[in-house]
C-alpha cells in the first residue's frame, strides 16, 4: 500500500496537466462544433463548404496523425507553437469536428412543426433558430456532448507522445525509473476512470438542469 | 516549404506496406471486437445478477480509460505473467478489447429492440435458452446494428496509429521511422494523412451502403 | 382616413392559386375574396386542399402559380415590370405579420411556459416592452380561461389547455386575419368544446377575419358568416352557412354533408 502511495504525487502532477488540457480544449471544441455545425445549415454555400472540408478533414484522418502533423510539420510552415498549445488546438479541432455532427443531428431532431409555429409568429429564420430551435436542440445535444467530453479526456493521453507531461507521461516516466508496471499502469487507468466518472456525473447534472419543461410528467 | 515528390515516391512502397499492416490490424481487431462484444452483450442478459454487474463494470471501465494506457498495460504486463505474445498480436488484442466494450453497447441496443413477445413466444414453444438466442433473438437483433458496428470499425481504423507506440510498423509507425532517419516529416506525414482520408471516405461510403441494405428490413 | 370613394381592400384576394405535390394537384387555380371581418368555415373531405389553402396563406408552402394579396399587399411576391417576382424574406415577413395561425397539433414551444409562449413573439418580433407584453399575455390567458396555468410548461397541460394557449399566442401578435387549422382534431372528444367556445367567444367580441378549417359541422355552421365546401382542390360551393347546411345547391356538397352528418346536425 505504501508502495502505491509514493507513486501518487508524480501521477497527480500529471493529472493536473491532463485536466488543464481538457479544460481548455473542451470549450474550444464546443465553439468549433457549434460554428461548423451551424455553418453547414447556413444558406451561404461558401460557409457550408468550409464547414464540410473542416469536418471531413479532421474526422477522416487519425487524431494521432493530426497531432504529429501539427507538432512536426506545421513549424515548417512557420506555425510554431509550444507543445501544450499544439495539443489543446489539435484536440479541440478534432473533437469539434465530431461535435459538428452532434450539432447537426440535434438541430435536425427538432420537429418541423416548431419551425412552422415560428413562421406563424412571423419570426425571422435567425430568430427562430436562436430562440426556439436551438434551445430545444441543445438539450438533445448534451448527452452526446458528454460522450465526446469523455473521448476528449481519453485522447489527452496521446499528448504524452508529443512530450507533454500529462498523466500518461507521468506513468511512463515512473515505469521507466521504477519498472513497477502493474501498479503504475493499473493506477493510471484507475485515475483516468475516476476522472471520467466525475465528468460523467457533472454532465448528468447539467442535463437534468437544462431539461426544464421537457421531461416533466403529464399532470392535468 | 516544397513538397518533394521524388522523395515521396521513394518512400511510397514502405508507406503502402505500413498501410497493409494498418488494414490488417483493423480487420483482425474488428473481428475480435465483434465476437467479444457479442459475448459481453449476451453475458449482460445473464440470469445471474453478479454476471450482469460484472460485465457492466468491465464495459464501463474499458470505455472510460484511454486505449493508449490499455495498450501499455497489456504490452508490459502480459509478459510478467508469462504470456509472451508477438507485439503485433498484443496490438490487435488491445484494439479488440477496447472496441468490444463499445460494440457490446450496440449489440445491447439491438437485442433490447427485439420485442419482449419474441422471448415469450419462444418460451411458450419450450425452446432452450441457447436456441432462443441463436434462432430467434440474434437473427432479428443483428441486421439493424451492422451499420453502427461498421462505424466502430472505422473508428478503430483511425485509432490504429496508437500501435506505433509499441513499435508496430503500421502507416504512422513507418512514417515516423522514416522521418527519424531522414529528418523529413513533411512528405511522410502528409502522405499518411492523405491515405487515411482516402480510406475514410471509402469506408464512409461502405457504411452508407450497409445502412441502405439493412434499413429496408 | 381613406377617401370614401376608394373601396377598402379585401382582407384576402386569391387569384389562380395552385399547388401540387408531385403529380398530385392539391389546389387547382383557386380564386377567393375575403372581406375584412368575415368568418369563413371551410369544409370538405381530407385531401380536398383545405389545410393546404391555409398553409399557403401562412407561407408554410410555396405557391406553384397564382397570387395572394393581404389587405392590398402581395404575399411572397412583388410586382416588377408587369410581372410578379419572388419577394425578399423581409418583404414577405412585413405582409405575413397580418396573419396568425393555430395548428392542429398546437406546436407550442416545449421549453417555454404558457405565458412565455404567448409573449415570446410580441417581445422579440414586435419589440414590445416585456412588462407591457406580460400584461397583455396575462389578459389573453385570462380570456382563454388559463390565467392560473401561466407558469405551466406545455407538457403539464391537457390538449385542450395547450390549444387554448396556442390561440392566445396567435392573438398576442394582433393579426388581422387568423387561420384555424383543424384545431380540435388532435383533442380528446371531451376537450373539444372548451376550445370551440373560446373561438366562439372571439367571434362574438372581435372583428378579426377568420378562416376556419374544421370537421365539426355544427361549429362550422354556427361560428361562420360564410361557408366554403372544397373538393379536389376546387371551391365547389361558397355561400351563407344557412344555405350550405340547410339547402346546398350543389349535389356534391349535399352528398358530402349526408356522408358526414347522417341524419342531421
Automatic annotation (TrEMBL), chain A:
InterPro entries: AA_ABC_transptr_permease_3TM, ArtM/GltK/GlnP/TcyL/YhdX-like, Ectoine_EhuC, MetI-like, MetI-like_sf. Keywords: Amino-acid transport, Cell membrane, Membrane, Transmembrane, Transmembrane helix, Transport. PROSITE patterns: ABC_TM1. It is found in: Cell inner membrane; Cell membrane. PANTHER family: L-CYSTINE TRANSPORT SYSTEM PERMEASE PROTEIN TCYL, MEMBRANE COMPONENT OF AMINO ACID ABC TRANSPORTER. NCBIfam families: ectoine_ehuC, HEQRo_perm_3TM. Belongs to the binding-protein-dependent transport system permease family. HisMQ subfamily. This is Amino acid ABC transporter membrane protein 1 (PAAT family). It comes from Mesorhizobium tianshanense. The lineage of its organism: Bacteria, Pseudomonadati, Pseudomonadota, Alphaproteobacteria, Hyphomicrobiales.
UniProtKB/TrEMBL annotation, chain B:
It holds the Pfam family BPD_transp_1. Signal peptide: none annotated. Residues 19-207 form the ABC transmembrane type-1 domain. It is found in: Cell inner membrane; Cell membrane. It is a multi-pass membrane protein. GO terms for molecular function: transmembrane transporter activity. One of its GO terms (biological process) is amino acid transport. Keywords: Amino-acid transport, Cell membrane, Membrane, Transmembrane, Transmembrane helix, Transport. Its main location: membrane. It comes from the Bacteria. GO terms for cellular component: ATP-binding cassette (ABC) transporter complex. The chain crosses the membrane at residues 20-43, 50-77, 83-102, 160-177, 189-210. The keyword Transport applies. Belongs to the binding-protein-dependent transport system permease family. HisMQ subfamily. This is Polar amino acid transport system permease protein.
From TrEMBL, chain C:
The keyword Nucleotide-binding applies. Signal peptide: none annotated. GO terms for molecular function: ABC-type amino acid transporter activity; ATP binding; ATP hydrolysis activity. Keywords: Amino-acid transport, ATP-binding, Cell membrane, Membrane, Nucleotide-binding, Transport. SUPFAM superfamilies: P-loop containing nucleoside triphosphate hydrolases. GO terms for cellular component: plasma membrane. Pfam families: ABC_tran. Its main location: membrane. Transmembrane segments: none annotated. Residues 12-257 form the ABC transporter domain. It is a peripheral membrane protein. SMART domains: AAA. It is found in: Cell membrane. Belongs to the ABC transporter superfamily. This is Polar amino acid transport system ATP-binding protein. The lineage of its organism: Bacteria, Pseudomonadati, Pseudomonadota, Alphaproteobacteria, Hyphomicrobiales.
Amino acid at each position: 500500500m505504501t508502495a502505491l502511495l509514493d507513486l501518487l504525487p508524480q501521477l497527480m502532477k500529471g493529472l493536473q496537466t491532463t485536466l488543464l488540457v481538457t479544460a481548455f480544449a473542451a470549450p474550444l471544441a464546443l465553439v468549433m462544433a457549434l460554428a461548423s455545425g451551424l455553418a453547414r445549415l447556413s444558406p451561404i454555400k461558401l460557409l457550408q463548404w468550409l464547414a464540410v472540408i473542416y469536418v471531413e478533414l479532421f474526422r477522416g484522418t487519425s487524431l494521432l496523425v493530426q497531432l504529429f502533423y501539427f507538432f512536426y510539420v506545421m513549424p515548417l510552415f512557420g506555425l510554431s507553437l509550444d507543445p501544450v498549445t499544439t495539443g489543446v488546438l489539435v484536440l479541440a479541432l478534432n473533437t469539434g469536428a465530431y461535435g459538428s455532427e452532434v450539432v447537426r443531428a440535434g438541430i435536425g431532431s427538432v420537429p418541423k412543426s416548431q419551425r412552422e409555429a415560428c413562421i406563424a409568429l412571423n419570426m425571422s429564420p435567425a430568430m427562430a433558430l436562436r430562440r426556439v430551435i436551438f434551445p430545444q436542440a441543445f438539450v438533445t445535444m448534451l448527452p452526446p456532448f458528454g460522450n465526446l467530453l469523455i473521448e476528449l479526456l481519453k485522447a489527452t493521453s496521446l499528448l504524452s507522445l508529443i512530450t507533454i507531461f500529462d498523466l500518461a507521461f507521468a506513468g511512463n516516466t515512473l515505469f521507466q525509473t521504477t519498472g513497477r508496471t502493474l501498479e503504475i499502469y493499473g493506477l493510471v487507468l484507475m485515475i483516468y476512470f475516476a476522472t471520467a466518472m466525475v465528468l460523467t456525473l457533472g454532465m448528468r447534472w447539467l442535463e437534468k438542469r437544462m431539461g426544464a419543461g421537457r421531461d416533466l410528467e403529464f399532470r392535468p | 516549404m516544397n513538397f518533394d515528390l521524388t522523395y515521396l515516391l521513394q518512400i511510397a512502397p514502405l508507406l503502402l506496406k505500413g498501410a497493409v499492416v494498418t488494414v490488417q490490424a483493423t480487420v483482425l481487431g474488428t473481428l475480435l471486437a465483434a465476437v467479444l462484444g457479442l459475448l459481453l452483450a449476451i453475458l449482460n442478459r445473464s440470469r445471474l445478477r453478479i454476471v450482469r454487474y460484472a460485465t457492466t463494470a468491465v464495459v464501463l471501465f474499458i470505455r472510460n480509460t484511454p486505449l493508449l494506457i490499455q495498450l501499455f498495460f497489456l504490452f508490459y504486463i502480459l509478459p510478467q505473467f508469462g504470456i509472451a505474445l508477438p507485439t503485433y498480436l498484443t496490438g490487435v488484442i488491445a484494439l479488440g478489447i477496447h472496441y468490444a466494450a463499445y460494440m457490446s453497447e450496440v449489440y445491447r441496443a439491438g437485442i433490447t429492440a427485439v420485442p419482449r413477445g419474441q422471448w415469450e413466444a419462444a418460451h411458450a414453444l419450450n425452446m432452450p435458452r441457447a436456441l432462443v438466442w441463436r434462432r430467434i433473438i440474434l437473427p432479428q437483433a443483428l441486421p439493424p446494428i451492422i451499420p453502427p458496428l461498421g462505424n466502430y470499425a472505422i473508428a478503430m481504423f483511425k485509432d490504429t496509429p496508437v500501435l506505433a507506440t509499441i513499435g508496430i510498423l503500421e502507416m504512422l509507425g513507418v512514417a515516423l521511422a522514416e522521418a527519424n532517419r531522414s529528418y523529413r516529416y513533411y512528405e511522410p506525414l502528409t502522405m499518411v494523412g492523405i491515405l487515411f482520408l482516402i480510406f475514410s471516405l471509402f469506408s464512409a461510403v461502405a457504411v452508407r451502403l450497409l445502412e441502405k441494405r439493412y434499413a429496408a428490413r | 382616413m381613406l377617401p370614401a370613394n376608394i373601396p377598402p381592400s379585401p382582407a384576402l384576394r386569391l387569384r389562380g392559386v395552385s399547388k401540387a405535390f408531385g403529380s398530385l394537384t392539391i389546389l387547382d387555380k383557386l380564386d377567393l375574396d375575403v372581406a375584412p371581418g368575415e368568418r369563413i368555415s371551410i369544409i370538405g373531405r381530407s385531401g380536398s386542399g383545405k389545410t393546404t389553402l391555409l398553409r399557403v396563406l401562412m407561407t408554410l408552402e410555396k405557391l406553384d402559380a397564382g397570387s395572394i394579396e393581404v389587405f392590398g399587399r402581395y404575399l411572397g411576391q412583388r410586382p416588377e415590370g408587369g410581372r410578379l417576382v419572388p419577394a425578399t424574406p423581409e418583404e414577405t415577413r412585413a405582409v405575413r405579420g397580418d396573419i396568425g395561425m393555430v395548428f392542429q397539433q398546437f406546436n407550442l414551444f416545449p421549453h417555454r411556459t404558457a405565458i412565455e409562449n404567448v409573449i415570446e413573439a410580441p417581445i422579440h418580433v414586435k419589440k414590445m416592452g416585456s412588462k407591457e407584453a406580460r400584461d397583455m399575455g396575462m389578459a389573453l390567458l385570462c380570456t382563454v380561461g388559463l390565467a392560473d396555468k401561466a407558469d405551466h410548461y406545455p407538457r403539464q397541460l391537457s390538449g385542450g389547455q395547450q390549444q387554448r394557449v396556442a390561440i392566445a399566442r396567435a392573438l398576442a401578435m394582433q393579426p388581422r386575419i387568423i387561420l384555424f387549422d383543424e384545431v380540435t382534431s388532435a383533442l380528446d372528444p371531451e376537450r373539444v368544446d372548451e376550445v370551440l367556445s373560446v373561438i366562439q367567444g372571439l367571434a362574438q367580441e372581435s372583428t378579426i377575419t377568420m378562416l376556419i378549417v374544421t370537421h365539426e359541422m355544427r361549429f362550422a355552421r354556427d361560428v361562420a358568416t360564410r361557408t366554403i365546401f372544397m373538393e379536389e382542390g376546387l371551391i365547389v360551393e361558397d355561400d351563407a352557412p344557412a344555405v350550405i347546411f340547410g339547402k346546398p345547391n350543389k349535389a356534391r356538397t349535399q352528398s358530402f354533408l349526408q356522408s358526414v352528418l347522417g341524419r342531421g346536425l
